[in-house]
Design goal:
3-stranded mixed sheet, 27% strand, 4-stranded antiparallel sheet, alpha+beta, 219 residues, 10 strands
Length: 219
Amino acid sequence: MNLSEYIINDIKPLKNKSKVSDLQLLFNQLTFSHIPVANEENTFLGCFFESDAHCFDGDKLISEYTYALEDFFVKDNTLWLDVLEAFAQNSANIMPVLNENNVYLGYYELNDIISLFSESPFFFEAGGILVVEKGTSDYSFSEISQIVESNDGKLLGAFVSKMKNDVTQVTLKIGNTGLNEIIQTFRRYSYNIVSGHEEDSYIESLKDRSDYLNKYLNM
């Protein structure tokens, strides 16, 4: 997937010799969480966070506050999932893009990168969502794939959605088949079923048997 078409350069980075008031004005005009800063050669120096910028003296130069610069960016050949991770790690809605020489090329907007995720088969292909969990040292993606494919399912996507107390939760998107047989196989492999976006016949069967037993005992 080529991300270069998503690089935006309508807003140039401020120079470190600019006044802080220019930075504050830019934040007032835009909805960006951060503003990139570069030197006279357009080499990227870092980003100022909006809340920090409004605490600075507007009459001073940006260069006097370089200690507050946040040093995050991606390269123009960074994969889109890594770009999305960089957004999350830095709580930003724009991400500076640099070339191999650390020259500023432009920035990505968070909404554009998220839209790429929504266009993946994980979202638009028909299928069911299944969330399973197992001990962190016990599960494996190869085992998960084998369970799905052994039941004629097609794994459209999988990711670790939660890790807590040595238990890992994995969210799956499965196509080509219903989930019931797959769910039963996961149980045989000691996976806990957190949720399935189709009727779980195992639970329904237990419920029916419980109802029948209650009626029998009350006769």
